[in-house]
Each structure stands twice: as structure tokens, then as C-alpha cells.
Specification:
The complex is a heterodimer. Chain A is mostly beta strands. In chain A, 0% of the residues lie in helices and 55% in strands. In chain B, strands 2, 4, 5, 9, 10 and 11 form a six-stranded mixed β-sheet that branches. Classes of the chains: A mainly beta, B mainly beta.
Chain lengths: 112, 111
């Protein structure tokens, strides 16, 4: 089946630094990738929809200048959390769309 | 009220038991997903349904579009089935539509 990878799988950073998370579709091309965030014991929440070659579409309440999304190729989308703060600590999951959505394994971000 | 409601929130079963997890939704959908999230957080897509019933191994998923309800059944449950099961509906058309997630059902199967 289709495989989506994320890197890194976990990251710990200091407050104020920026963190980049990569999402790759390994064996298929995905014109659309989605970024989700999941807080403990909460459901996944869509942050943004990333379309190859165009600007991402952000959900209401998600700051586009804080969560920078780049979808430079059909197999790679990146999410950069800029000037991270402890409240950004969460589990970030991407998915890539090919008839259905295939989910990455997630990245656990901890901001100290 | 959430657009996607799952029940129960938590479920403990003995190995071998038949398990049912329910999902009700209040929006118009083009498809419904059942996902499995392992303790480490990784998500696996189990089923995508738009009508009827699908079966894969010991897992069965059904959907009733008129009643806006879906069920996930696990036959002969096993401790390795322990995970959070998430129902997600796709609103909007096409394969790119937004997913709306339920809060999940945490299943624990005891040996």
C-alpha cells in the first residue's frame, strides 16, 4: 500500500526556535497533502491543506505566518513551526491524498 | 455538539470477545473512514466506506447513510487490537475533501 513518512519522528526544542517537519509520499505522487495537529486526548484537527506548487489553505484559527507550509514537489511537503512556544507542543501528523488519505506516522514536538 | 460522535469512549474487552464501536455524524458526507491509532501515535487507515459493508480479516465496517451511522466490528479480539479507533468523515466532494474526526474510542483487549 501507499506509504507516507515523516521526519523527524520526535523533536525537542527551546522556546523561540523554529522546527521543520517533513512529510514524504514514498511510492506515489500526491498533489495534496494535509497537516493535522493532535493534542493529548483530543481528536485530530486539520491545520492546513497543502497543494503542490501553490499556497497552502489554512483552517480558521491557524496562523499562516507561524506554521509555514511548503509543498515544493509532488512527494514532499514541509511544515515549519516558527518561533515555537510551549503551547505548540503537540503531535503533528501529515497525510497524502491518493484516492484516499494515507497518514504519516506523526511527529511529536516538545517545546521547552 | 460534535459533528462526529463515537461511542463508547473507552472499551475494555477480554481476548476473543466480539467488539463493536459506533460512529454517528450530523453532516453530509462523501465517505467515512475508520482509522487505527497505535499507542506511539501512528495512524493506519482501516476502511473507507461510502455505502454498505466492508470486511478485512477480523474487521468489519458498515455504514447506513440514511441513519448517518457507521459501526466497526472486531471479531475474535486480540490484545494486539488494543489501540484508539477513530471515525472520520469526509465532507465535500472528491478525494481532497476535508476530514472531520471523532474523538476516538480507546480499546483495550485483555489476555
Amino acid at each position: 500500500g501507499a506509504v507516507v513518512s515523516q521526519h523527524p519522528s520526535w523533536v525537542i526544542c527551546k522556546s523561540g526556535t523554529s522546527v521543520k517537519i517533513e512529510c514524504r509520499s514514498l511510492d506515489f505522487q500526491a498533489t495534496t497533502m494535509f497537516w493535522y495537529r493532535q493534542f493529548p486526548k483530543q481528536s485530530l484537527m486539520l491545520m492546513a491543506t497543502s497543494n503542490e506548487g501553490s499556497k497552502a489553505t489554512y483552517e480558521q484559527g491557524v496562523e499562516k505566518d507561524k506554521f509555514l507550509i511548503n509543498h515544493a514537489s509532488l512527494t514532499l511537503s514541509t511544515l515549519t513551526v516558527t518561533s515555537a512556544h510551549p503551547e505548540d507542543s503537540s503531535f503533528y501528523i501529515c497525510s497524502a491524498s491518493l484516492n484516499t488519505q494515507y497518514f504519516g506516522p506523526g511527529t511529536r514536538l516538545t517545546v521547552l | 455538539k460534535n459533528e462526529v460522535e463515537q461511542s463508547p469512549q473507552n472499551l475494555t474487552a477480554q481476548e476473543g470477545e466480539f467488539i463493536t464501536i459506533n460512529c454517528s455524524y450530523s453532516v453530509g458526507i462523501s465517505a467515512l473512514h475508520w482509522l487505527q491509532q497505535h499507542p506511539g501515535g501512528g495512524i493506519v487507515s482501516l476502511f473507507m466506506l461510502s455505502s454498505g459493508k466492508k470486511k478485512h480479516g477480523r474487521l468489519i465496517a458498515t455504514i447506513n447513510i440514511q441513519e448517518k451511522h457507521s459501526s466497526l466490528h472486531i471479531t475474535a479480539s486480540h490484545p494486539r487490537d488494543s489501540a484508539v479507533y477513530i471515525c472520520a468523515v469526509r465532507s465535500g466532494g472528491g478525494s481532497q475533501g476535508n476530514l472531520i474526526f471523532g474523538k476516538g474510542t480507546k480499546l483495550s483487549v485483555k489476555p
